[in-house]
Structure formats: structure tokens, C-alpha cells
Amino acid sequence: MAEHSRDPDALFALALGGDRSSLARLVSLVERGGDAARTISRLAYPRSGEAYTIGVTGAPGAGKSTLTNALIGHLLTLELDVAVLAIDPSSPFSGGAILGDRVRMQDHATDAGVFIRSMATRGHLGGLSLATPEAIRLLDAVGWRRIVVETVGVGQVEVDIAARADTTVVVVNPGWGDSVQASKAGLMEIADVFVINKADRAGVLQTQRDLEMMLDLSGAAGDGWRPPIVTTVATELAGTAPMWQAIVDHRRFMSDSGELEVKRSVRVGEELQAIVARRLELRARELCTGRRWEQLGERLARRDIDPWTAADEVLHPVGA
Amino acid sequence: MAEHSRDPDALFALALGGDRSSLARLVSLVERGGDAARTISRLAYPRSGEAYTIGVTGAPGAGKSTLTNALIGHLLTLELDVAVLAIDPSSPFSGGAILGDRVRMQDHATDAGVFIRSMATRGHLGGLSLATPEAIRLLDAVGWRRIVVETVGVGQVEVDIAARADTTVVVVNPGWGDSVQASKAGLMEIADVFVINKADRAGVLQTQRDLEMMLDLSGAAGDGWRPPIVTTVATELAGTAPMWQAIVDHRRFMSDSGELEVKRSVRVGEELQAIVARRLELRARELCTGRRWEQLGERLARRDIDPWTAADEVLHPVGA
What we know:
- The structure is a homodimer.
- By secondary structure, chain A is of the alpha/beta class.
- Chain A folds into two domains: about 50-255, Rossmann fold (3-Layer(aba) Sandwich); about 275-320, no CATH class.
- In chain A, about 50% of the residues lie in helices and about 10% in strands.
- A seven-stranded parallel beta sheet of chain A has the order 3-2-4-1-5-6-7, with helices on both faces.
- In chain A, helix 1 crosses helix 2, helix 3 (about 35-45) crosses helix 6 and helix 4 (about 65-75) packs across helix 10 (about 240-255).
- In chain A, about 45% of the residues are buried.
- Residues about 95-105 of chain A have low confidence and may be disordered.
- The interface between A and B is large, with 43 and 43 residues.
């Protein structure tokens, strides 16, 4: 491999031609944020919109990575390629974030039809919630048509990232119904497909019944889609085909009903709002430093001015 | 009582003269936020700065309200007056928020040297974290020299409110050391005085030892103050005098060391930052609505523009 330019435009051209090393580097630049990330965003956005995104989430230890690995294997037998972004810090894929591009820990990392990358925030000012959609658009723009985003189902940011995929797969284990988890209700809400992984363990039927009951209570299918429940034993590659079928069914439902377009439009609007809020937050931090800020502090201490009037003075330059 | 004007200036003049009904009304206006709250803030700020604030916090059921009630009784025997703001939604004082000014549920609500008011957010745009310091300044400005703010020690906002008092009292019960609570570390961090209430129950010594050990581990007293541990049985008014003494000791330490001035200066700076951030957030919401926003959404959907460039357009009017 020839030595790479670090210039995002050059890297993007190479990645469009299929060069994975350039693509990996672009993902790193997106993680880091800043001007390079903005350039990549500008390059990728007009070319994106073709990929179908699949979020895979669930509690730590549910077997999300093993399941993703099994799904990759299944897609390869169907001659379908797939890119994976692993956001889950407990995922073995996350080795990638530490080892850079030398992802070694999974079966399919070097297969031609697979691109696997771990995401970390590094320097991106908007954190994962802004960096992830940018990375997805980048993969989309250079030609990946199926993108799996694996996040741990703990923490609002991680759950939101999975929820924003076109199809969200929630992975649970037998006995999940009994467990008390603050995040359980949140996961119920975002699931388009349920997977009971480790289905060779006791309690599968009970977990199925619990999930069905929770779906009944939540009024699922009010919008025409009731999340199917698939059982898998990912370590033995069992159940992967029905799981993919459930995803394909949901995808067809989303396209046919017009909901895919609506969901994507809402998603990009939310992303824009998040960017606006984040930029204003950074602006507020800038405004709340420096000599002028210190002088306001002194005037407050002398009680020459009250905090709301002081805020008026701070905000005057931005008309807020 | 003559019929009151709703004009904040007139109410403030009456409250300065000692009229409690006007003061209660002003607190309500502060809760509601908006222009009246800003007027009150402007009136109160230059006259404030004399009161000493005491935060009382702890898990629900720790007995914070009973303890506050016992403390009020003790202060009355010392001929010291005290105002109480009850933020804890589980507090019996909160009856006040529901019953308006007809607080009936405690021993001292109608004593001359006591003013008790429950706080709710109602319409204040900054929520409790901005409304509470304004209410404190109001009480301060009209002459209350000791202000107790009781909050439940669950939730970042509530803990922060108690932590911003001059002296923060953390109320625990025997057995607290064993309990697994996410908020425990946060409460350890903010305590200036520990009270083990319900000390007639088993496990007091163990809880004392646990607290001492946690204080050792946290390196408390590195700044010259190690939180004392007081035991009380608030329902029997036992231990109230030592509790008050611990507060007075901390107050003297804060004044003598100069830390009180530093803490208050940091506090008003943080409040100003919070106001600035909140105002920018509201501005962002304004910017993310309307026809111009919709047009941007359409351009995004057509991929004429990427989200970051769209954010530039949104933020142009505020220079952020």
C-alpha cells in the first residue's frame, strides 16, 4: 500500500475506489472531529442515502458481538457485503479502537465483503451521538449498502444511536423478563426486532411470553409493525437466518409504508438540532471566559449587577 | 390582610416591611419565572448577601423534614429566626406546594420567627436549579438571616442545589454504609456535616465507622475541614443542639478561612453560566422552528446541503 495522504479529499477519492485503509483513516478523522471531519461530512452527504442501517443493542454480555459476527457470516453466504461500526466499549470489536486498524479478534475482519471498525469519541466535540451518523454517512457514501451499528444498551447516548438506525435489533437473553433494569423500558420502546440470544439456556419460553406480554401492554403494532421475536445461539450460528429475515421483513415494511422516509427525515432534523445545540453550548463556554467575564464576576460580587442582567451583557453579542 | 397588588415592586416593598403574605406571593412569582421573576431578581440582588444558607439533603425517608422541623424548634429556643425552602417532593412540607400558602403539616409553620415555603418549578424556564437561588436571594433581601434549603438527595439537580449552600448537611440512617446507592458517592462529596438520623435504630456505630473510613479514603480535611458526624433522633428532638453546633462550627471555619467568600463567588459564576447556557438553549429551540427551519429540512432531504453547513445557516444570526 502506497503511503497515504492525510488530506480528506484525497483519502475520500481513494476510499471511493475501494481502498479500505483510506476508509479506516477517514473514520478516524471523523472520530477526531474538527475541520477534517466537516470536510468529510460535506463530501459524504450528497453521496449518501442508499445504505440501510441496522442497530444492534442490548445489555453487556447479551452476545451482541458474537451475534453480529454470526450475521456477517450469514450475509457473506448470501454474497451480501456489510460494514460494522462497533460502539460498544465492552465489545471484542472494540479492540479495533485500541489496536487501530489491526482488528484481529473476529472471524470476518479481513473478508473482502466486510468492513469492521470500532468507534470511540476521541476528540469529536459532539461525542458519539454526532460522530456516529457522520461515520455512517461516510460508509454509505463510499458504497456500503448494509451498515450494522452495535452499541451497548446502557446509557442514553448509546441507546439513542441504536434507535436511530432504520431497523433496531434488541438482543436479550433468557431470563431478561425477570431482571430489573432501568434500561429495559427504553429498550422495549426502540426494538423493531427482538433476538433472544443464548437460547440454549433455560427460560426461553418464559422470556418469549414476557416479551409478548410487554408488547401487548405497550400497544405495539398500533403502527402496523409488531416486533417479531427470534431465538438464536450465536456461538453456534443458530438462528441467524431467521434473524436476517426479520430484519429484511422490517425493512420492507418500512419502505412500503413510507415510514422509512419519515424516520430518516426526523433523524436528520434531530441531528441538525443536536449540532445547533452543541455549537451554542461551545459558544456559551467561549462567552463565559476571559477578561470581560471576570469583570462581570467582580461586578456581581460588588452587587452592581444581578445575574440575569449580567447574562444579558454576556449574550448581547449573540443576540440570545 | 388588605388585598394585594400583583405588582412585584409593590409586593417587594410590603415584604421588606415584614409582610409574609407578600413574600409568599413573591416566591410564587419566582417559581413561575418570566418578567416578574426577573424584576424580583433585580430588586433582591443588591440587598442580598447577608443570609447564611444551609442545605439539608439525603435519601427519601432519611427524615430530613423531621430533622428540619426539630432544627427550627431549636433555633426558636435560641431566638434565632429561620426561613425554609423545601424542594424535596417527598417532604411533608411539600404540602405547601399543593396547598398554596396553607401549610399546615408542621409544628412551626405559623411561628413568627419561621417562614416555610415549598418550591416547585411551575413555569420557571431554568427549572429548580435557577429558581432556587433566586428564591434564596429574595428571602435574604427581605431580611431572613438563616435559610435552610431541603432537597432530596436523588437526582443531580437536587443534590447540586443542596451542595451550593454555605453549609451542606447530609442526612443518613443507620445501615447507610451497607446500602448500594449510586448517589452515595455524590453525597459523600458534598457533605460539610453528616447527621445519622434515626440513631435509636441498630447499626449506628457501624455507620459512624463506615463514614469515618469513607472520609479517610476521600482525603477529607485536606482543605482543613473534616465533616463531623452527629447522631440525632429527630422525632424526639434528640441531637438537634449538637447538629446546630456543627453547622455553626463549619460556618465559622468558612468565614475565618476565607472559603465562604470563594465559595459564594464560584457559586454566582456558576449560576451566571447556567443562565447563559439556558438562554442559548432556548434560542436554539427558537432557531430550530419555523419556515426557514423547514426549508433547511427539505434541502437536507434533497441532499443540497449537509447538516454542518445547515447548522452554519441556522446559527448565522447568533454568530455561533
